[in-house]
Amino acid sequence: MAMVKKKTNWKKMLVAVVAFIVLLCMLQLIFVGWFGGIGPFRGLEEKRMRKVAGNQSEYDFSQLEQMEGSPFPGGKIGILGSSVTYGSASQGQAVGEYLAARLGTELYKEAVSGTTLTDGESNSYVSRLKTIPAEEKFDLFLCQLSTNDATLAFPLGEVSEETDLDRFDTSTVIGAMEYIIAYAKAAWGCPVVFFTGSYYNSAAYGKMVDALKELQVKWGIGVLDLWSDKEFNTLSQEQRMLYMWDDIHPTKAGYSRWWGPELERQLLDFLETE
Known about the structure:
Elements: H1 10-35, H2 42-50, E1 76-81, H3 83-86, H4 95-103, E2 106-111, H5 125-129, E3 140-144, H6 148-151, H7 173-188, E4 192-195, H8 203-219, E5 222-224, H9 237-243, H10 252-273
Parallel strand pairs: 1-2, 1-3, 3-4, 4-5
């Protein structure tokens, strides 16, 4: 008996492929704010961000004035981070730009949205740290305690007794932080300061903050802690709508009116003890 070949239903396959592509595009559009704007929707996202109340011109960092008695007038600060450092919800104006404006310094910013402290991929904090030119002369080096490690449930690790750069397990959050601290101190010989995000519902990030405070004791680094102060984190609904795009990412108003002044206060307190 002759075998009957089944006809390939190309129409159904084409519909399935198109549906899959549409789904990917929708997911990209949904998460584009987190990743900082990628692909064909970047222009659309930038237009949407311009309309956000907290990103209006009155909150632009160009209106910031340099503080009197800056510890680094005319100096340079470096900053390493992910979307919070990039300013994915604030049109690229974030912690580094705020502090540079207030301190009267230049800024070297190494920020890629969606990246982690923990090593293992090409855009990790650890891998990008090594791309910063050794000849840079920083008066201060800042590093963001990334929320992405908590979101992705990367292993926390433990604080070691080591200080040798090659002895840290950078596949863990703590190991990566220790590597960054040791590397920055050796490369630039300047104060090293980590900063946290404000409070959001994440037990994993809370454990990272606790670990960072242990490293503060071991290494003598600065820790600018926006996470732990309940009073600081108590906002009205109106304030939260103005200051935050979501639970993690501030708008320009959030950086300039809420995060920035507190980070500045804690930084100056730390520098006074240096």
